[in-house]
């Protein structure tokens, strides 16, 4: 009993996905380790590296699972592949959570995915005498419904699974008040809204970092988008001392006074996200500025960006949109 009383509290953070692409769960891990003084075991799929602050923190231990790929079976039967994949992931989770990590006081699991994560973590939390907490990022059944339709039997089963095991949690977080209301009214789940806050390592990029980034983007974007992209001017001018937005003179970096306004946004490119609002706003801006300046649609956009690069001033800033997503990336000028 004395050894148990002196044991440092421990938390297990479970992500059935790439922890490097799960910033919220990384922030949870850092908060648990630095602010709550807990030992933290992260159980997640491999992929991109998490932030250096996690990898160097002596209180955070990362346990990587292998991603399950069943592409061959998927071509034969999609439903069979989903069931088999869920079964394999369930066994992997049980193995890691029961035998690969020390007994934690609490499991914190990211949802979605709900299948088989919620059932596996609930079972292990019962076996190991730990609390079971769900962090609701979204609803898994709605994401599945985008590809199968809300009325599909798989989506209905997924909904029942997610709701049933979600209600068995000892506690819950969620990302918005709207989700909190939905969980309370229609799921019977009392969740605490936990907004994301930037960690200590999150800061504005320096001018040098911005310049280096824009230099790298000049080549990588053009390679992906082709020579027709507006930034292809970077290929024509092999000068690493200048980009569309920055210039480097005598070792010092500065932002160009005639640089375009840079707008960066991420999107999942799903039907439930009306991203056309931003694109329509960009078109409205373009038309109003063109009408004010008496410009025509036939003007050479390539020459326009060369003029910007060479220092030509404009009464209204040009807009450079960088839009990223899971399956697409695009540049709009």
Automatic annotation (TrEMBL):
<dbReference type="GO" id="GO:0000030">
    <property type="term" value="F:mannosyltransferase activity"/>
</dbReference>
<dbReference type="GO" id="GO:0005789">
    <property type="term" value="C:endoplasmic reticulum membrane"/>
</dbReference>
<comment type="pathway">
    <text>Protein modification; protein glycosylation.</text>
</comment>
<keyword id="KW-0256">Endoplasmic reticulum</keyword>
<feature type="domain" description="Glycosyltransferase subfamily 4-like N-terminal">
    <location>
        <begin position="35"/>
        <end position="191"/>
    </location>
</feature>
<feature type="transmembrane region" description="Helical">
    <location>
        <begin position="76"/>
        <end position="97"/>
    </location>
</feature>
<protein>
    <recommendedName>
        <fullName>Glycosyltransferase subfamily 4-like N-terminal domain-containing protein</fullName>
    </recommendedName>
</protein>
<keyword id="KW-0472">Membrane</keyword>
<keyword id="KW-0812">Transmembrane</keyword>
<dbReference type="InterPro" id="IPR026051">
    <property type="entry name" value="ALG1-like"/>
</dbReference>
<keyword id="KW-0808">Transferase</keyword>
<dbReference type="InterPro" id="IPR028098">
    <property type="entry name" value="Glyco_trans_4-like_N"/>
</dbReference>
<dbReference type="Pfam" id="PF13579">
    <property type="entry name" value="Glyco_trans_4_4"/>
</dbReference>
<keyword id="KW-0328">Glycosyltransferase</keyword>
<keyword id="KW-1133">Transmembrane helix</keyword>
């Amino acid at each position: 009993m004395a050894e148990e009383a002196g044991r440092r509290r421990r938390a297990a953070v479970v992500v059935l996905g790439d922890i490097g692409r799960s910033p919220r769960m990384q922030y949870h891990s850092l908060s648990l380790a630095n602010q709550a003084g807990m030992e933290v075991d992260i159980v997640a799929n491999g992929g991109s590296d998490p932030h250096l602050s996690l990898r160097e923190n002596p209180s955070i231990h990362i346990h990587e699972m292998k991603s399950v790929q069943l592409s061959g079976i998927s071509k034969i039967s999609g439903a069979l592949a989903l069931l088999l994949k869920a079964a394999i992931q369930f066994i992997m989770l049980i193995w890691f959570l029961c035998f690969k990590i020390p007994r934690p006081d609490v499991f914190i699991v990211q949802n979605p995915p709900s299948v088989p994560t919620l059932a596996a973590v609930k079972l292990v939390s019962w076996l190991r005498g730990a609390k079971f907490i769900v962090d609701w990022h979204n609803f898994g059944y709605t994401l599945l419904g985008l590809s199968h339709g809300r009325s599909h039997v798989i989506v209905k089963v997924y909904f029942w699974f997610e709701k049933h095991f979600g209600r068995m949690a000892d506690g819950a977080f969620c990302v918005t008040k709207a989700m909190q209301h939905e969980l309370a009214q229609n799921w019977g789940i009392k969740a605490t809204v936990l907004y994301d806050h930037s960690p200590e390592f999150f800061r504005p990029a320096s001018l040098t970092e911005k310049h280096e980034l824009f230099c790298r983007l000049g080549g990588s974007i053009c390679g992906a988008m082709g020579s027709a992209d507006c930034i292809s001017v970077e290929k024509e001018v092999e000068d690493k001392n200048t980009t569309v937005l920055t210039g480097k003179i005598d070792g010092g970096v500065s932002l160009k006074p005639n640089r375009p306004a840079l707008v960066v946004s991420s999107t999942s490119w799903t039907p439930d996200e009306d991203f056309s609002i931003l694109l329509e706003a960009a078109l409205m801006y373009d038309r109003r500025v063109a009408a004010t300046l008496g410009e025509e649609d036939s003007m050479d956009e390539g020459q326009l960006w060369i003029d910007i690069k060479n220092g030509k001033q404009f009464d209204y800033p040009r807009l450079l949109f960088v839009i990223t997503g899971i399956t697409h990336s695009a540049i709009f000028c």
